[in-house]
């Protein structure tokens, strides 16, 4: 099979040798999480105090569960309508269409594209801040190139790379990215353990009134940083053993959370609450820190180039742009890159962007839609089984034409009863093949209750988090920090 730029990022041919093993599926999931849990998540959890432990454990457990629900939903959808495989390029919207119709499918497509595009903005900001930090540390505060300018520089450098289309070998790129993540983890551990402790590093108790605000902010950031749901179905379809998706998701979360836990524990012990939104800004100057800053910027840029191509390809499909290299593609991707630069220059703090995206855009994809799809597909599966049973029984009981029938009525009734019983047993075994593990743990009715609780709690948390983040963003504009675009525009006016 010949690959084109229209091929899915993780898609391969039907040969099992080119399919993803469980190990590489875990690599892909860890790559999706990237360095953000190591660099940008510790402060949000430390601010919550001991409540932060319960917060991240609860949210990540729900995320693992809902990611598994998506995989199970796809298996049920294939059973009900095998033609859904033809829409495997956009599996999330395909699930939306088979469950609630084409209008929700279009909305899900828009939401996924918007989430992917917005997710690249914090990548650009954090990478630029790390390069600014690196310049200051190396030159002993003498060279100050603002990250506002680094955003523009990185955007210009990345733009030609985005013209070339999607990567041809995701296994290699994902492996390189995960190696960078592990190296960043080791370097930061070295910096924390063997670096100096600031004198102002004291642990302060957050008031009871503020704790819930910190928890809501942490909820949005966690949802953003551990958002695997838009691509988890693509990973499943490219796995050799599709039933092992829950194991891959669980192991991927475990690896990233383990690195995050180690960094957070030693950071809280050594620096207390004296931690900035980016952990690299807190650490003392050292050669390992310089390498860590470069690797973080490289990993974030690599992640942006890889993840944004899915969005670009979808938009090119919508605009009927040829898959070959052409001017229209370059113009479209350049416009989107410029838009990303403008948005990155327009926000005061990257942590607010992560929390806003995670709480408002990512949360429906992670916590609300998977349980809704699963419950609807359970109902459709039940109707599908009943319909197949009725059709089978009707075919068996259909009397043969003509007066010379070979079977007597009594024998025909016994035969139909035998086939009906056998059909029920075989179909029940087939339908429950993919859900064997979960059915041992959860009763179907209990699962429905759990799904309803997740949906209700997520809707409430999403509304509260969105309100707090919008309010915090407004306060940051007015009282605390001005966005880059404000400072650049003022500089241009004075020229």
Give Rg in angstroms: 26 Å
Q: Compute the number of structural domains.
A: 1
Main pleated sheet = none
Helix content percent band: over 70%
Number of E-type strands: 0
The assigned structural class equals mainly alpha
Tally of contiguous helical segments: 19
Q: What are the segments in which pLDDT stays under 50 over at least 5 consecutive residues?
A: 1-14, 199-205, 400-407
What best-fitting shape do the alpha-carbon axes yield? globular
Secondary-structure element pattern, one letter each: HHHHHHHHHHHHHHHHHHH
Q: What is the residue-mean pLDDT, rounded to a whole number? A: 75
Name the beta content range.
under 5%
Any guess at the CATH architecture?
Answer: Up-down Bundle
Using the coordinates above, name the CATH class: Mainly Alpha
Distance between the termini: 57 Å
CATH topology: Amino acid/polyamine transporter I
Fold blueprint:
Elements: H1 22-33, H2 36-39, H3 42-47, H4 51-80, H5 91-100, H6 102-138, H7 147-163, H8 170-194, H9 208-225, H10 229-237, H11 245-271, H12 279-282, H13 287-318, H14 327-345, H15 350-397, H16 409-431, H17 436-441, H18 444-480, H19 484-494
């Amino acid at each position: 099979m010949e690959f084109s730029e229209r091929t899915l990022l993780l898609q391969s041919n039907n040969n099992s040798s080119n399919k993803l093993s469980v190990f590489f599926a875990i690599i892909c999931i860890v790559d999706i999480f990237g360095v953000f849990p190591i660099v940008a998540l510790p402060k949000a959890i430390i601010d919550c105090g001991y409540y932060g432990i319960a917060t991240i454990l609860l949210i990540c457990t729900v995320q693992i569960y809902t990611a598994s629900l998506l995989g199970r939903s796809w298996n049920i959808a294939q059973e009900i309508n095998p033609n859904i495989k033809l829409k495997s390029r956009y599996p999330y919207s395909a699930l939306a269409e088979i469950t609630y119709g084409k209008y929700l499918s279009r909305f899900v497509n828009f939401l996924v594209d918007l989430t992917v595009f917005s997710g690249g903005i914090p990548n650009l900001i954090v990478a630029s801040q790390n390069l600014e930090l690196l310049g200051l540390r190396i030159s002993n505060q003498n060279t100050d190139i603002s990250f506002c300018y680094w955003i523009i520089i990185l955007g210009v450098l990345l733009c030609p790379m985005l013209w070339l289309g999607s990567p041809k070998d995701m296994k290699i790129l994902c492996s390189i990215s995960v190696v960078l993540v592990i190296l960043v983890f080791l370097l930061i551990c070295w910096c924390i353990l063997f670096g100096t402790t600031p004198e102002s590093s004291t642990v302060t108790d957050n008031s009871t009134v503020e704790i819930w605000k910190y928890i809501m902010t942490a909820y949005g950031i966690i949802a953003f940083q551990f958002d695997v749901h838009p691509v988890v179905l693509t990973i499943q379809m490219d796995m050799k053993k599709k039933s092992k998706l829950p194991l891959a998701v669980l192991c991927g979360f475990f690896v990233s959370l383990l690195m995050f836990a180690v960094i957070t524990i030693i950071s809280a012990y050594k620096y207390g609450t004296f931690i900035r939104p980016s952990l690299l800004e807190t650490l003392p100057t050292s050669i390992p820190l310089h390498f860590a800053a470069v690797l973080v910027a490289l990993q974030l840029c690599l992640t942006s180039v890889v993840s944004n191509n899915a969005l670009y390809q979808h938009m090119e499909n919508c605009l009927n742009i040829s898959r070959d290299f052409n001017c229209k593609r370059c113009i479209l991707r350049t416009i989107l890159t410029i838009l990303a630069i403008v948005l990155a220059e327009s926000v005061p703090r990257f942590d607010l962007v992560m929390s806003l995206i995670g709480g408002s855009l990512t949360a429906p994809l992670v916590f609300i839609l998977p349980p809704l799809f699963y419950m609807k597909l359970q109902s459709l599966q039940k109707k599908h089984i009943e319909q197949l049973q009725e059709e089978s029984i009707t075919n068996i009981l259909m009397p043969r034409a003509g007066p010379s029938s070979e079977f007597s009525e009594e024998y025909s009734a016994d035969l139909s009863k035998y086939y009906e019983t056998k059909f029920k047993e075989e179909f029940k075994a087939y339908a429950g093949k993919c859900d064997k593990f979960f059915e041992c743990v959860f009763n179907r009715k209990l699962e429905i209750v759990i799904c309803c609780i997740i949906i209700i709690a997520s809707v409430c948390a999403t509304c509260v988090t969105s309100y707090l983040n919008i309010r915090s963003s407004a306060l940051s504009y007015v009282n605390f920090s001005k966005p880059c675009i404000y400072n650049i525009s003022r500089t241009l006016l004075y020229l």
